[in-house]
Amino acid sequence: MDNIDDFNRGCALILARLYAAFPVPQVLRMADLDECLDMPEDLRLSRRQQRIALYGATMQFLADEGYVTFASKAGPGQGEVFSGARLSAKGLAQLSKTPEALRAPGRTLGERLAESAGKIAEQGAADAIKALVAAVFS
Fold first, then answer.
1. Would you tell me how many other CB atoms lie within 10 Å of the CB of residue 57?
2. Which of 49, 56, 55 has its CA nearest to residue 79?
3. To the nearest 10°, the Cα dihedral for 53, 57, 63, 68?
4. Residue 37 and residue 13 in contact, taking contact as beta carbons nearer than 8 Å
5. Is the CB of residue 77 less than 8 Å from the CB of residue 29?
6. Residue 38: which residues within 8 A CB-CB, separation 6 or more?
């Protein structure tokens, strides 16, 4: 897996969590987002630390681009715990869309993203998440 795959995974997990909780601000701990069950056990510990760092950078990216907001961040790298995290109006608007390519009756992009994030360890989920994250940013 490369950074883009992990970025897509992080986007899906972060956005799904904030969409499900909207409008209540959340405390997001990057370590709690992903147990890395999609990888062999012998690689899990080292790759999990890399993902935690990348998820922190992903959260900051989402904030910089206006999709999420947060009140503060903390942790050794200042990106492991985000307090007061919530979707922005822009993020909620994007996740409330139902793109033609993903159209299913009555299901928004946010609902589909939340469903896919719940299946993130399953084989083939990466392609679905990649398509959903691309739709968020389009």
1. 16
2. 56
3. -40
4. no
5. no
6. 120, 121
Could you tell me the mean pLDDT of each successive run of 10 residues in the chain, 138 residues long?
A: 81 91 93 78 81 90 95 79 94 76 60 66 59 66
Measured CA to CA, the distance from residue 43 to residue 71 in angstroms comes to 33
85 in helix, strand or coil?
Answer: strand
Q: According to the model, what pLDDT value does residue 58 have? A: 93
- Phi/psi for 81 (5° steps) reads -135, 125
Residue type, 88: S
pTM: 0.73
Note the pLDDT of residue 103.
55
The confidence score (pLDDT) of residue 14 equals 94
String of DSSP letters for 87-122: E-HHHHHHHT---GGG--TT--HHHHHHHHHHTTTS
